[in-house]
Specification:
Rossmann fold, Helicase, Ruva Protein, domain 3, Arc Repressor Mutant, subunit A, three-stranded antiparallel sheet, globular, binds adenosine-5'-triphosphate, binds magnesium ion
């Protein structure tokens, strides 16, 4: 393979691989786009408010679709002499009614004070702003499960009834909710009765072929011609198709490119892709581990150490190892009940797997195993994490 000159790169425009970049084209999502257009056509054509829910697992293009659709809707309206504004709120960042309303209001009034107004007062301000600007406002609540879990469904109820409170006034507010999970169980009866539950736009996981098309589009935007041979793109698509997650595919593409740059070669090879896969998993794991509280980190370190020599350990072994690790780190050793809780939590978070030992083993016990990451790597990351957090 050819070496590229010093300072050269496979990337023509790496920014096209960043998470903030939203290409105008959304490959393989025409049916969903069409359905949204159909649902919202009456908002453009007549005096109508609408609400809808977009669902689908991680990286299936929900946020991307909503961004493209919202600005398309604005343009469609403009062509018909109507004014539709939109605002997108990420409820993982803005998870209380106050925060969500403030974010929406700041669309109209960027310096609106963040204190001193109650929720009903903020709603009144919003109503006046919409009236004054003579627009119809489309509110997109992304990752809405965070808001629902933290603050309940009152705000959604209010938004879906927004126009009923002032009879005779034009339809002024529409709503799109986005979530990976089924959000209807999180909504109370009143909100469910006003939210149109059949207006669901489902985003299936992408298959390998679809991912390949999505990736090829990015390759063209971000890389020099010839830098990503088709079999490398195919391999990335195959790897990402296990989760059906386009974001993971794009991340893998970028990391593979960086490895090629490190080696100063002009082309991404399948071996770069395989290496990038291992590294990307590691980064994801590291990020998840960093978020654990110290108690769980110590418990997981104890498990990782015991696990280096065996496929399974039982909870007794894990607890013995935990005592040793606590002693070594000068950490307070928590009791059996708390340690058991750590195990349950680590299982729920996906760091370990647990199962009850089968027949033939004296006295049933819980067996622990690691699925995703080698014990040695886990140990190394955790030792660094725990050391760093003091
Ligand atoms: N069909 C597609 N065509 C082009 N790019 C896509 C497509 N689907 C997803 N992407 C890209 O993949 C990445 C993830 O998409 P997006 O953020 O919309 O996923 P999401 O469903 O909102 O995921 P999450 O549930 O994690 O929020 C983005 O960079 C997006 O631009
Ligand atoms: Mg999203």
């Amino acid at each position: 393979m050819n070496s590229s000159p010093a300072g050269a790169s496979v990337f023509k425009d790496i920014q096209k691989l960043s998470f903030d970049y939203v290409p105008e084209k959304l490959v393989h999502r025409e049916p969903q786009m069409k359905r949204l257009r159909t649902l919202f056509r009456p908002v453009v054509d007549s005096n109508f408010s609408q609400n809808a829910l977009i669902t689908g697992s991680v990286g299936t293009g929900k946020t991307h679709l909503s961004k493209i659709f919202s600005s398309d809707l604005g343009k469609m309206a403009q062509d018909k002499g109507k004014y539709i504004e939109h605002v997108l709120v990420n409820c993982r960042q803005y998870y209380t009614e106050d925060m969500v309303l403030l974010k929406i209001i700041s669309k109209f009034q960027p310096h609106f004070p963040d204190r001193g107004f109650s929720v009903p007062e903020k709603l009144e301000v919003l109503r006046k702003q919409i009236d004054k600007s003579k627009c119809h406002l489309l509110i997109v609540l992304d990752e809405v499960d965070a808001l629902l879990k933290k603050s309940g469904s009152n705000l959604i109820y209010t938004f879906t009834r927004f126009d009923e409170e002032v009879p005779g006034i034009k339809a002024s507010l529409s709503l799109i909710l986005i979530s990976q999970h089924d959000v209807f169980p999180l909504m109370d009866a009143a909100s469910l009765s006003t939210f149109k539950r059949t207006n669901v736009v489902a985003m299936d996981k992408y298959n390998g072929e679809e991912l390949k098309d999505i990736l090829m589009e990015r390759v063209e935007l971000a890389f020099y011609p010839g830098a990503v041979p088709e079999d490398s793109t195919g391999l990335i698509a195959d790897i990402a198709s296990e989760s059906g997650d386009a974001r993971f595919g794009i991340e893998l593409l970028m990391n593979s490119g960086m490895l090629a740059d490190e080696e100063r070669v002009e082309e991404i090879t399948p071996e770069h892709v395989r290496l990038a896969k291992a590294e990307t998993f590691r980064t994801i794991t590291e990020e998840k581990l960093a978020e654990l509280d110290k108690g769980k980190k110590v418990a997981l370190l104890a498990i990782a150490r015991k696990m280096k020599k065996s496929a399974y350990i039982n909870t007794g072994d894990a607890e013995d190892s935990y005592a040793v690790v606590c002693e070594e780190l000068g950490e307070k050793k928590r009791g059996h009940t708390q340690f058991w809780k750590y195990i349950k939590d680590l299982d729920a978070l996906g760091f370990i797997d647990t199962k009850i030992s089968g027949e033939g083993v004296v006295g049933k016990t819980t067996l622990i195993s690691l699925s995703e990451i080698p014990a040695g790597q886990l140990e190394e990351i955790l030792e660094r994490e725990i050391g760093g957090s003091e």
